[in-house]
Design brief:
Length: about 80
């Protein structure tokens, strides 16, 4: 596991129906359904670096540009930042 990835703490893992990304030095944030960046994922852009597609208020109806049709509600456990400066 690199510095650009990690697991969400147990207090919030698998308990969210929304997501918002604001990577300070990375263009993309991947949200994964399993710990250690496994399972299914969707990707959001950085709010500050790209300025669009950076949040999804309802994960139950699919999420990101690569997670269409997948129910991610209460099913996000880890993350990875990509496209980093
Ligand atoms: Ca959605």
């Amino acid at each position: 596991m690199s510095l650009n990835s990690g697991n969400f703490p147990a207090a919030i893992a698998n308990k969210s129906n929304s997501a918002w990304a604001n990577g300070g030095s990375c263009n993309y944030t991947e949200f994964w359904t399993q710990y250690l960046q496994a399972g299914s994922k969707f990707t959001l852009y950085s709010q500050t670096r790209l300025g669009s597609n950076y949040r999804d208020p309802q994960l139950s109806n699919g999420a990101g540009f690569d997670g269409a049709g997948i129910n991610f509600a209460n099913d996000i456990a880890s993350y990875r930042f990509t496209g980093c400066a």
